[in-house]
Write a structure and sequence with these properties.
By secondary structure, this protein is α/β, with parallel strands linked by helices. A five-stranded mixed beta sheet has the order 5-4-3-7-6. A two-stranded parallel ribbon has the order 1-2. Helix 1 packs antiparallel against helix 2.
Length: about 140
């Protein structure tokens, strides 16, 4: 049974094919350090519709996207940029794809929401408010 099967319906996601390959490789290489997040990332890549960067809609979260999301748990809206681990810096708002929130955001479309586990395993309702692509 996959982790998603016990949750409410998950929204469709879309990934850039080359990024999906890199994310899969990264998840496999980090699975001993971050087993839960890596499993979730692999499931997300497996269920995603793949496209080229040119065909990705502007309102879909990709690597490097600036994202504003709403966390229903505390009501806060946060602005982050989704990056690979080597570029992560929480103080600068750059979050790694290998964090629970990074894994939740990838491939999501503005206006979509998902129930997603935090580091403690509690489900959080995350809604993407807006997405800005890298120029």
């Amino acid at each position: 049974m996959t982790l998603h099967q016990s949750w409410a319906a998950v929204p469709p996601i879309q990934l850039v094919e080359s990024e999906a390959d890199m994310i899969s490789d990264l998840a496999w290489s980090a699975r001993d350090r971050f087993p839960d997040v890596c499993q979730l990332l692999l499931e997300e890549v497996g269920r995603a519709s793949l496209c080229t960067r040119a065909d990705l809609p502007d309102d879909v979260v990709a690597m490097g996207s600036a994202v504003t999301y709403h966390d229903a748990r505390d009501g806060a809206a946060r602005q982050v940029r989704l990056v690979y681990p080597s570029h992560a810096d929480v103080a600068l708002g750059r979050i790694s794809i290998l964090t629970p929130i990074g894994a939740a955001l990838i491939g999501m479309r503005a206006g979509a929401s998902i129930l997603w586990p935090d580091r403690e395993g509690h489900l959080r309702d995350i809604m993407v408010e807006s997405v800005g692509q890298v120029a």
